[in-house]
Each structure stands twice: as C-alpha cells, then as structure tokens.
Design brief:
Helix content: 40-55%
Structural class: mainly alpha
Number of helices: 3
Shape: globular
Number of domains: 1
C-alpha cells in the first residue's frame, strides 16, 4: 500500500492498532450499504475507508483507557 501514506493516517488516530480497528469497522459499514463521505469511489471498501480517514471525515471515540 503506497497511498494514503501510513504517516498521514497516523496523524488522525493515536496508534496503528486503532487505525486497523477503525478501517475494519468503516469497511464493514461501507460493504453493508453506508454512503461514502468522499467524492471518489474506490473498488475496495477498505481502500475507501483509508481515504476517508486520511481526509478527516471519519473519527473515533475511545470508550476505555485500557484493561485494569
């Protein structure tokens, strides 16, 4: 994967793990019929989710700080 750059994606999330979880959840939403938030349509839902996160259109909310 060359684009979007992992460095650019990590500016929008706090870790690589969070990025993977956010992309997976958004990819599932897109495959279940959710509308895209970017103008260009990509063939793969995961690619579209990556570009949405890179554009800043997709956010996340951390519900817990960790396992205690």
């Amino acid at each position: 994967m060359i684009y979007p750059s992992i460095d650019n994606l990590l500016e929008h999330v706090d870790s690589k793990y969070t990025l993977v979880i956010a992309v997976a959840k958004r990819g599932r939403q897109l495959s279940n019929g959710s509308k895209a938030t970017i103008g260009k349509i990509y063939q793969k839902d995961v690619a579209m989710a990556l570009w949405e996160i890179e554009a800043g259109n997709i956010g996340y909310e951390r519900t817990r700080d960790g396992i205690k």
